[in-house]
Structure formats: C-alpha cells, structure tokens
From TrEMBL:
It is found in: Secreted. Pfam families: Defensin_beta_2. One of its GO terms (biological process) is innate immune response. Has antibacterial activity. This is Beta-defensin.
Length: 80
C-alpha cells in the first residue's frame, strides 16, 4: 500500500512539473512574440526573454517604435 501511495505521489508531482514546460512563453507587446533559441526565417530578434532565449517577432507584426528626438545642445553648455 505504501509503495502504491509513493508511486501516485511521484506521478502527480511529475505531471505538475511537466505542465509548466508545455506552455510556450510569449514576449513583447501584447504577447506577439515567442521565446525560442533561434528565430524562424519569417521572424526577427527583438530582445532577450527572462530565460535567456531570444524573443522572436514575426516580420509582419513588427511594431515601429518611434526614435527618440535628438538631444538639444545649447551653445552656452559647450566648454572648451
């Protein structure tokens, strides 16, 4: 009986651990990217995921991020 309970406990804990890895991790804005080791041909690398995998974003879904405005340099601030 004890061996049967031990087997059920081990199987139950293994299914809980295995379920966490079945889910594909998503990344970027509104979860449009996937965390993978390598991106497909129709995807581009954007940033790193938490698990040090690359965040691959489809080329068609790439959102254009606006460039920051150029820094204003005043002549009074320049010292020679």
């Amino acid at each position: 009986m004890n061996l049967l309970m031990l087997a059920f406990t081990i199987c139950g804990s293994l299914t809980l651990v295995a379920k966490a890895n079945w889910k594909i991790q998503r990344c970027w804005e509104k979860d449009i990217g996937h965390c993978r080791k390598r991106c497909f041909q129709n995807e581009r690398y954007k940033l790193l995921c938490k698990n040090k995998l690359t965040c691959c974003i489809p080329i068609t879904a790439q959102l254009s991020t606006p460039k920051p405005p150029p820094r204003v340099i005043y002549i009074e601030d320049i010292t020679v």
